[in-house]
Specification:
Blueprint lengths: L1 H14 L11 E2 L5 H10 L5 H4 L13 E4 L3 E5 L5 E4 L1 H11 L6 H4 L1 E2 L7 E2 L5 E9 L1 H13 L6 H16 L2 E7 L4 E10 L1 E7 L2 H4 L3 H4 L11 E7 L13 E2 L18 E6 L10 H32 L1 H30 L2 H17 L2 H7 L2 H11 L1 H15 L6 H16 L16 H9 L5 H8 L1 H5 L4 H18 L7 H9 L9 H11 L5 H9 L4 H5 L2 H7 L3 H12 L4 H18 L13 E6 L17 H7 L11 H9 L17 E4 L11 E3 L5 E8 L17 E5 H11 L3 H6 L3
Antiparallel strand pairs: 1-14, 2-3, 2-7, 3-4, 4-11, 5-10, 6-10, 7-9, 8-9, 10-11, 11-12, 13-14, 13-16, 15-18, 16-17, 17-18
Helix pairs in contact: 10-11, 10-12, 10-15, 10-20, 14-27, 15-20, 15-26, 20-22
């Protein structure tokens, strides 16, 4: 790898076709100092730091046009009428929620051809960053004060107090963030808009072409975008949805560039990356890589196979489960790739080398030795001590807690219980405390109370809402798989009494729990697993206790994760991993600070900037991948028999024609790029982030990473960390020529 890297640098110097390797880093938008500004300008940036972010001066900067989509994705403003662009997969849940068997907008696409057809997305919010303030000294003083008056000084309380204070003073939404595990604190101020309406979303045959097979891969051919519009009160202020609201006039919008780009060109991404763990120790990263993720990946992979079989067999099931399957597969592929890349790139060994340096630095000072002298030894011990128990809790979570979707009906039953008890003046225990058994008053109330009031009848019938979102045939298969994996992998000492009762009643010839028989017995005898039985049960008069006696409810609620947590705390003792990991981050941060190493904090959904260049990749020995893809690749992959690779007739004919109109380039305008690759340092939450050229103009949207970058949660691998982007010209062609939304093209001034 080092030899290849050296050759790449030499060739770049000789040909000028590539810039040097991009710098690692998701830099805080408020921390662009002179040194970072200079490095970016050396890469090709034509702007000053103040033109990117400048909260203390009049006028708008580039970052003023970049927004957070509820800290799950990123978007950007592209018109002076509140038009916002982000990824389709960020809008997937909204499009799915609007879809029906009659109008499946996932398959058809959603196109608001008139402004009155734009659909309000209830509960959706968009956050505009106004300013970031370093409040470290104030928070440290607040900690001291809270201790003095006998109050807690944890991050939740500190956040509450600081956010309440600054929100009151400024009238803005205030959010406190801890950097480097409390080494620094920053407070961000936002204006929040809550009337957000869906404008456009292409069909998945375009936005998600290649499906899960192409996910995290290169080359890709996805037109992954969606459009929303933000509305305000008539006076321009944020407002809840109203027909009287008007399109927002943003302080800044991004200029769209149609000039294109080439290999070696500067590329900058501004967005809200969700989380990274690059300050994690070799012990934590190794534990997750060896124990936690492999088991979860296997279980989720099998769950995906079950769901996929049913989705392929029935379009209505596909519609019901597509959103759930999408999120499930994205996480499963992410962690599978992470395990592979951590092993391939020797990440754990690299972290151990850093820890050798850290231990030497600690040992060079009596003060540091007193605080951190045995830190690494304690971390090593505690992660080994909890291995077995963490394996049990991991299987419990993946089978009982999230192995099915029907389990959500159990939560409805717990809501019923709470309503009944509250109505009778009894404070209910939290669901996690149910394993301790109800107190006498609660038990008597649940046994005697009958649902005769209209309120309680309404609560009970709300159970039916959960069944509209699922198919019981799919759930039966998922449940059978969950029961099998639970009995095979969770230690008997953590089974609940009902789990043991069933295991003793139904045994295989080898004397083990007959999971298949247990699952079948539960499913056939529960009122919660059959709509006919459920309707009959709801029509009859029952006590709360009758709900608790249901076999499915009993099995899924018989044991709570709190039991595992209590056992883990006993094993950890004074070596609480939470505290030790925090101290590890503090020590690593202080060592780098002491040595003058420029560093950035782990991503935590605050606005960050990353810079790099357009370029390809050599993913494996003897393999060289170009940095761009074209519509020819879509036609090569097109397969009418494969849902993930099929085009509708209009798409196929338009791609075949090669007529890109005003959006084409090259000789006779016959060229078009679909996706391109940069070496920007990104992670989850950057989805939808604007990809900007050296002048801060929009050239595309970030939507994915490559398979070789999937160790990036805990480690940055130079030459392999890539960002996959969709070309803005292909997006505009799709809006214009495929969808015919000329009103949007005119709005953009194009």
């Amino acid at each position: 790898m080092k030899k290849t890297l050296l050759i790449t640098i030499i060739l770049a110097a000789l040909t000028g076709s590539q810039s040097a390797i991009a710098d690692e880093g998701m830099w805080m938008i408020n921390a662009i100092d002179a040194a970072l500004e200079k490095k970016m300008q050396e890469r090709g940036l034509e702007l000053s730091a103040r033109e990117i972010y400048n909260a203390d001066a009049s006028g708008a900067s580039v970052s003023d046009a970049v927004v957070s989509m509820e800290f799950g994705c990123t978007g950007s403003m592209i018109s002076d009428q509140g038009l916002l662009i982000t990824n389709h997969h960020c809008a997937y849940g909204d499009v799915h929620a609007l879809s029906t068997p009659e109008h499946n907008y996932l398959d058809e696409g959603f196109w608001a051809m008139k402004s009155e057809e734009e659909v309000n997305i209830k509960g959706k919010s968009v956050y505009f960053l106004k300013k970031v303030i370093d409040v470290t000294e104030e928070v440290e003083a607040l900690k001291i004060e809270q201790r003095r008056i006998g109050k807690g000084d944890g991050i939740r309380r500190l956040s509450y107090l600081m956010e309440q204070k600054y929100s009151k003073e400024t009238g803005l939404e205030a959010l406190l963030s801890s950097m480097w595990s409390g080494s620094k604190y920053y407070l961000a101020l936002y204006v929040v808009y809550r009337d957000v309406r869906l404008v456009a979303a292409p069909p998945v045959s375009s936005a998600a072409f290649g499906g899960d097979i192409d996910n995290w891969e290169w080359p890709q051919h996805k037109c992954d975008f969606a459009l929303y519009r933000i509305y305000t009160a008539p006076d321009g202020s944020p407002a809840e949805y109203s027909e009287e609201n008007i399109p927002m006039k943003p302080a800044a919008k991004l200029k769209i560039s149609l000039d294109g780009y080439k290999a070696g060109d500067y590329a900058m991404i501004i967005g809200y990356p969700g989380s990274t763990n690059r300050y994690s120790s070799s012990f934590k990263a190794g534990f997750n890589n060896t124990h936690k993720h492999p088991a979860s990946n296997r279980l989720r992979g099998e769950q995906m196979k079950i769901i996929s079989r049913w989705m392929d067999a029935d379009p209505e099931i596909r519609l019901k489960y597509s959103d759930y399957y999408f999120s499930l597969s994205n996480v499963q592929e992410l962690f599978s790739g992470q395990v592979e890349c951590i092993n391939r790139f020797d990440v754990i060994d690299s972290k151990r080398e850093i820890e050798k340096e850290l231990q030497e630095w600690i040992g060079a000072s009596p003060e540091r030795t007193d605080r951190w002298g045995d830190l690494l030894e304690r971390l090593d011990k505690v992660y080994k001590d909890v291995e077995k128990l963490e394996n049990d809790v991991n299987y419990f979570r993946e089978t009982i807690i999230r192995g099915t979707r029907i389990v959500r009906a159990c939560h409805r039953v717990n809501n019923i219980r709470s309503e009944v008890l509250n109505a009778n003046g009894i404070k209910p225990k939290k669901p996690m405390e149910l394993t301790d058994g109800p107190d006498p008053a609660e038990e008597e109330c649940c046994r005697c109370h009958r649902f005769c009031g209209k309120k309680f009848r309404k609560i009970v019938k709300s159970l039916m809402n959960e069944y509209e979102k699922i198919d019981l045939r799919v759930e039966k298969d998922l449940f059978a798989f969950a029961v099998r994996e639970f009995y095979a992998n969770v230690d008997r000492s953590f089974w609940g009494d009902y789990h043991m009762e069933l295991a003793d009643a139904y045994k295989t010839a080898e004397g083990k729990a007959d999971a298949e028989k247990i699952a079948e017995t539960i499913w056939e005898n529960s009122f919660m697993t059959d709509l006919g039985r459920l309707e009959t049960f709801l029509e009859e008069e029952h006590t709360v206790a009758d709900y608790f006696d249901d076999p499915f409810f009993r099995f899924m609620q018989n044991m709570k994760v709190v039991v595992f947590n209590e056992e883990i705390q006993k094993i950890e003792g004074e070596n609480r991993r939470l505290n030790l990991n925090r101290e590890y981050t503090h020590a690593l941060y202080q060592m780098r600070l002491d040595k003058g190493i420029v560093q950035y904090p782990d991503a935590n959904s605050t606005m960050r900037l990353t810079y790099g260049t357009v370029g390809g990749i050599e993913p494996r020995d003897g393999m060289v991948c170009d940095w761009k893809t074209t519509p020819a690749g879509i036609l090569e992959k097109h397969d009418p028999s494969d849902y993930d690779f099929r085009l509708d007739d209009r798409q196929y004919l338009l791609y075949r024609s090669g007529d890109w109109g005003r959006w084409g380039f090259g000789p006779d305008g016959k060229d078009m790029y679909v996706n391109f690759m940069t070496d920007n340092d990104i992670t989850g939450g950057n989805s939808g982030s604007p990809v900007l050229n050296s002048r801060g103009e929009l050239i595309g949207l970030a939507f994915d990473g490559n398979k070789e970058s999937l160790a990036s949660d805990v480690w940055y691998t130079p030459d392999y960390n890539k960002c996959v982007c969709v070309d803005i010209r292909f997006i505009l062609w799709t809006i214009d020529r495929y969808a015919g939304m000329t009103r949007i093209i005119e709005e953009l001034g194009l």
